[in-house]
Amino acid sequence: MGLYEPDKSFAIDTHFHANVFRRPHAKRRRIATQLSRYAAHLDGLCSTEHAYKQPLEAYDFLCEMVGHYELDLTTVPGVENISREGVEVIQLFESRAALVSALKAFPAFSWSIHDAVSLQSPDCVTILPHPFSPSGTGIVSGIGFDRACQLLSHFDYIEISNGSFLEVPLDALPRTKFKDQVEKTTQFPEELMPLGVGRSYGSDAHRPRDINLFSSLVKGYDESVFQALTMRQDLKPILRTIAEFRAVGKISRSLLTSSIEYMQKQDYKLTNNGDGTRSSLAKRARSRILG
Ligand SMILES: [Zn+2]
Known about the structure:
Layout: E1 9-16, H1 25-38, E2 44-47, H2 55-68, E3 74-76, E4 78-82, E5 88-93, H3 96-105, E6 124-128, H4 139-143, H5 145-151, E7 157-162, H6 177-186, E8 198-202, E9 213-218, H7 225-229, E10 236-239, H8 242-247, H9 258-264, H10 280-290
Helix pairs in contact: 1-2
The structure holds zinc ion.
Zinc ion binds at residues 15, 17, 48, 80, 129, 204.
């Protein structure tokens, strides 16, 4: 295990779907071209294709894309697996071979979320994505609040915020159960966070242009991304700038969702109106993004 270098931070999207399943060759080429641009500011990208959408093929596609465009980008093999109750869990691995074995050992819908602890091994890092997702794929909506809370400590990471929910215009929604679920998917309640479990942030993008939120990982120079992830770190959120949200047509001048506004107020924000308290870590990440 290498020494931690607090100065060396690594921008990584911990939840990304290449989404090339059953796509024709021309479409894949377009995705690769777009991704080479939208992932240019990242150091790492976790391949977390759905278990029922050929996750191995998705990982191979990302590796090929990185090679073709000669990007300085580490790809992490993984899968967004799904239990027989319909609850999703991300599994990340050190190697392609480890992903292959896990796909055999835990096929989609074959295992129970109640046995989530059986997913754990030194060769696998687990992330519980979008626990409060309004769809049943979040653990809370899938098996109920009380049972879900008992299982939270069985994962290496909990996804504190999911990028695909950040752009929901919460302010425009009436106070409903749905709104509550979306709020807690954009910001997992701190009081539910079990001790010793890491925090992660990922875009859950299914298109390159949707990469909007990712994590800052602390990694030693001689350490692999996977080894750094096994430390159950409290990853820090890095958010696309408001200018960039607008540039890809995600939010109009008049619409700034309360979730994005909230994230912008976090310590590691990437806004253009600095307040002097930003850490050097975020500053460097920012210059990497803006530069
Ligand atoms: Zn996902």
